[in-house]
Description:
Layout: E1 2-6, H1 13-21, E2 31-35, H2 39-53, E3 61-65, H3 68-72, E4 77-80, H4 86-99, H5 109-133, E5 138-141, H6 146-157, E6 161-163, H7 167-178, E7 186-193, E8 196-204, E9 207-208, H8 210-214, H9 217-220, H10 224-229, H11 231-237, E10 240-241, H12 246-249, H13 251-260, H14 265-280, H15 287-300, H16 304-310, H17 324-337, E11 341-348, E12 361-369, E13 372-375, H18 383-405, H19 408-417, H20 424-437
Parallel strand pairs: 1-2, 1-4, 2-3, 4-5, 5-6
Antiparallel strand pairs: 7-8, 8-9, 8-10, 11-12, 12-13
Amino acid sequence: xxxxxxxxxxxxxxxxxxxxxxxxxxxxxxxxxxxxxxxxxxxxxxxxxxxxxxxxxxxxxxxxxxxxxxxxxxxxxxxxxxxxxxxxxxxxxxxxxxxxxxxxxxxxxxxxxxxxxxxxxxxxxxxxxxxxxxxxxxxxxxxxxxxxxxxxxxxxxxxxxxxxxxxxxxxxxxxxxxxxxxxxxxxxxxxxxxxxxxxxxxxxxxxxxxxxxxxxxxxxxxxxxxxxxxxxxxxxxxxxxxxxxxxxxxxxxxxxxxxxxxxxxxxxxxxxxxxxxxxxxxxxxxxxxxxxxxxxxxxxxxxxxxxxxxxxxxxxxxxxxxxxxxxxxxxxxxxxxxxxxxxxxxxxxxxxxxxxxxxxxxxxxxxxxxxxxxxxxxxxxxxxxxxxxxxxxxxxxxxxxxxxxxxxxxxxxxxxxxxxxxxxxxxxxxxxxxxxxxxxxxxxx
Length: 445
C-alpha cells in the first residue's frame, strides 16, 4: 500500500515513519512517497528515515519528489501536512498580531486567520488534484488550522478527507491517567471545533468518572489542564477544556506573556529547525540523533508562555511524546483493514452538533470502518460554548469566502468577527500588516 506525505520535508515526518516501522500486519504501508517544495528539507528528512529504518526488515521503501502530481498518482492514502509560508510565515503571523495587542497564535485568533488565508487556496488546489489523480485515495489532513483546512478540502473531496489533531487525544489520556483508568478502555465525551473543544465526561465501564475528578482539587492539580485553567474555573465549567481555550479564557494574560517573551514560538521554531536542517546536511552527521535532540527541546517548550502565565510549571514527562502519528495510523488501519475504531476526528457535522449546518467540520468522537469516519451523536453544548463555537465557525466561513473571492473586505470581516480581535480598525490594520509581509496573500484585493 502506498502512502504519500505532503510536506514530506517537515520536522514531524519521522514520527509517522517510526509508527509505520512498528506495523507488521498484513496490508501495511510498503511504500512512502515524500513530497515537498523544498528539496533540501526532503533530503534531510530522508536521511533521518534511513537511519530509523536501519536493521528493520521490510521497512517501507521511501522515495522523494518535488512533483506534486507524481506524488499523488496511485496513492491509497495522502497525509497532508503542509506549511504555507514556512516557519518564517508563522513568525510574521505572530509579530503582526502582537504589534496590535492581539493574539497571533498559529491556529487561534488573528494568527490563525492569517495562516488560514494563506493555506486554503493551496489546500483547495491539492484537493482538486487528488480528486483528479487519485479519486479513490483517502486524505488525512494534519495541516493547521486543521478544522478550517479540512472543511475547505471537503468541498471537493466530501467525506474522503478527515482532519486529525493530537490535542483531544492527549487531553483524554491525561484525564484517564489521573483517574486511574486505561485510556483505551475509556469513552471520552469530547465535542467542539479543532482547538476549541471540551471534555464533558469520561466513561469507564459505563460510569462517568469526570465528576470525581472535578470534585477533587488534588487530582485537578495533578495534570496540565488542571494547572493551566485552575480548579475553581474547571468546576465552574463542569468540563475540561482543550488547552487552546486558555487563549480565550485568559486572553489578556496570554497576550502579555507572549509580548514578554524573548521570541515568539514561530521564531523559536524557525531558528531551531534551521539549525537542525543545516546540521543534518553536514556529511556524516548523525541525522536521527540530531532529530531526537531537537524534538525533545521542541516538546518541552510547547505552550511555555501559557504555562508561565498560569504558573503551571513544566510539562510532565508523559506529555513529551507525540500522539498525532498514532491517531493517523489508527485511522488509516481502520479504513484500509476495516478494523473498527473510535477516534476523535475532524469531520463534517451531518446533524451531529446543533446549531451548525451539515457541512460544518467539527471535532467529535467518530466510529471508523472501511467506509470512513462516522460522527457519534452528542448532547448539546452549554450556551457559552455554543456561542464560542458558532462565532469561530462564522469566522472560518468568512476565511473560506475570502480565499474563494479574493475580497479584502471579506478578509477584514473575518478578522473583525473573531472573539479575540476587539476592533474593526484593528482588523483593517491586521489585513494591511499581513498582506505587506506575506506574498501568499497578494490575492486579496
